[in-house]
Amino acid sequence: MYSLAIIAEAVVNGLMTGAAYALVALGLTLVYGVLHIVNFAHGALLTCAMFAVLGMEQLLGIGPYAAILPLALLFYGLGYGLQRFVIGPSSHGEDRNTLLVTLGLSIILENALLAAFRSDTRSLGGEMGFDVVELGPMLLSRPRLVGCAVALLVAALLWLLLARTDTGRAIRAVAKERFGAQLSGIDPRHIFAVTFGIGCACLAVAACLLLPTFYVNPRVGNAFVLVAFTIVVLGGMGSVTGALLGGLIVGVVESLGGLLLGESLGQLGIFLIFILVLLFRPTGLFGARA
Amino acid sequence: MLEIRGLRAGCGGVEVLRGLDMAVSAGEIVAVLGANGVGKTTLNKVLSGVVPVRAGEILFDGQRIDRAAPDAIVAAGLIHVPEGRKIFPNMSVRENLELGSYRRGKPRRARNLERVFATFPRLRERMAQAAGTLSGGEQQMLAIGRGMMAEPRLLILDEPSLGLSPLLVEEMFALIRRLNADGLPILLVEQNVVQSLEVAARAYILENGQFALSGTADAVRDNPELRRAYLGM
After folding, report:
1. Cβ <8 Å between A185 and B70
2. Which of A88, A167, A254, B116 has the fewest CB atoms in 10 Å of its CB?
3. Highest taxon of the source (chain B) (predicted)?
């Protein structure tokens, strides 16, 4: 059997990976919960964000942590524009149109990246990824520890935004009662775009946190989004708390699965959870009853 | 205050409103009455900018609002409390009220919240409760309270008595009188003819997208046309 220290380390490592997963899932679940669309472009947008982090470092010399704020703002604007001027107007009020538009967007983005950067796998390089912190008997990767802290902070900020600000209240109002919101002077098109922008900003932050320990290629986002879908189903579609806790759970399961079954089978546990949740609790841990 | 000239609107290929002329003056309660499906709710949606105008003009305080967006109309002070309340069921009573001042009346939010709670003590008791768990009457109070938070200069009430018990219907019409007593003009859109004509100064009877009858409430009540227009007899 494994010693307690190794298992503890695996759990903590899992929590740290899970925090990054949670950020990706937060964006996905927020957009689903408010706009009622499954954003198929989420993975491609994450890939774009990861390339942007790479570009900031290599062209401008701005490190991934310093890039968090500018990239989050940039991707907020990008997301706002995408929803306001592309996805929203092309949907004509039909959900299946939105589905196809986001799918088309993902194909365009992925292939644009492929054309520009080829399918090579790149990374930030440098020593950052090997930096470790000693915590009792555990050796923890410093960038992942930072990533975990920032992800929790972003989740807390998002929760505060939704619970305490007028914009957050408007987001929740539009999610459930669009007509009532309009009559209160809320413009749903604006709020939808804000929500989509926040979802993209979450991706930008996630990309900044991932890059020190992860590689990037034009398809890398899809791996994360597949996991993020599992998290969203596990936590409950549209639930912010669910995305956060679901992300952490999935991270730990993956990490423990990797330890016990071998690295290549680590994700087995995630999809086992996915199937079990669908069978026994289809609304997710924190989802509202249909 | 509110003036409508030759208003036409519809949904898809169907013209629902076929040339309406009407007015609401300052401080007045005006009733728009009619059976189900004659276009009352469409009229309200057109006034609040949710359904587009096809022809004609809407003037609010002398300003054209027939091409304005819903949020701009709210900002101008034309507040619509919709049929079926359309409150935010997943949010607390307090949050619902606060969102009433999202676009208008924000600087005086705390004071207006106190006023709404003074008018509806029941809402104060239920302040932290999710709005979706309120009774029908309480939800109607909340919808009106949310409208009051926007400091309306003209209030449109769409079927405020719908689905309420007879006792609550009495209370609702008493409330409408009270709101109007402070000088607030109200456009009351109702199926409840008898009680609406009691509180209103003037009334319009809507039939198949046109006003079949209009005049002072007393004149409309005594007009034999009312029965024919309303009951189709």
Report:
1. yes
2. A167
3. Bacteria
Q: What total of structural domains would you count in chain B?
A: 2
pLDDT in tens, B150-173: 999 999 999 999 888 999 999 999
Residues B73 and B94 in one domain: no
C-alpha closest to that of B59 among B47, B70, B50: B47
**Chain A residues lying within 8 Å of B112, measured CB to CB:** none
Is residue A235 pLDDT above 90, yes or no? no
| A175 contacts B99? CB cut-off 8 A | no
Q: Of the spans A6-15, A132-141, A270-279, B81-90, which averages the highest pLDDT?
A: B81-90
Least confident range from A68-82, A88-102, A128-142, B174-188: namely: A128-142
Closest Cα to residue A35, out of A191, A163, A204, A187?
A191
- Whether residue B198 is found in the same domain as residue B146: no
Going by the DSSP 8-state scheme, the letter that residue A60 receives in this structure is I
Q: Give percent of chain A above pLDDT 70.
A: 97
Same domain for B99 and B147, yes or no, is: yes
Query: Which of the listed residues B122, B152, B182 is the one where a domain comes to its end?
Result: B152
Distance CA A68, CA B25 (A): 56
* Longest CA–CA separation in chain B, Å: 52
CB proximity B131 to A under 8 Å: no
Eight-class DSSP state of A288: P
For residue A96, count other CB atoms closer than 10 A to its CB.
9
| CB spacing of A180 vs B80 below 8 angstroms | no
Query: How close, in Å, is residue B88 to chain A by CA atoms?
Result: 6
Q: Is residue A238 over pLDDT 90?
A: no
**B83 in Cβ contact with B158 (< 8 Å):** yes
What range does the domain containing B129 cover?
A: 80-152
- The residue among A267 and A229 whose pLDDT is bigger is A229
On whether the CB atoms of residues A52 and A207 are closer than 8 A, the answer is: yes
Among B80, B91, B95, beta carbon nearest to A183? B80
Residues B173 and B192 occupy one common structural domain: yes
| pLDDT single digits (tens) B126-135 | 999 999 999 9
Residue of B70, B75, B98 lying closest to A183 (CB–CB): B70
What ranges in chain B are assigned the alpha helix state H?
40-47, 70-76, 93-100, 109-119, 121-125, 136-148, 166-181, 193-199, 217-222, 225-231
- Window 157-186 of A: residues touching B by CB (8 A cutoff) are 166, 169-170, 172-173, 175-177, 179-186
Residue in the structure block whose two tokens are 């104060």: B124
Provide the CB-side half-sphere exposure for B115 (13 A, CA).
17
B160 and B209 housed in the same domain: yes
For B157, nearest residue in chain A (alpha carbons): A183
- Give the helix, strand, coil percentages of chain A, each rounded to 5: 75, 5, 20
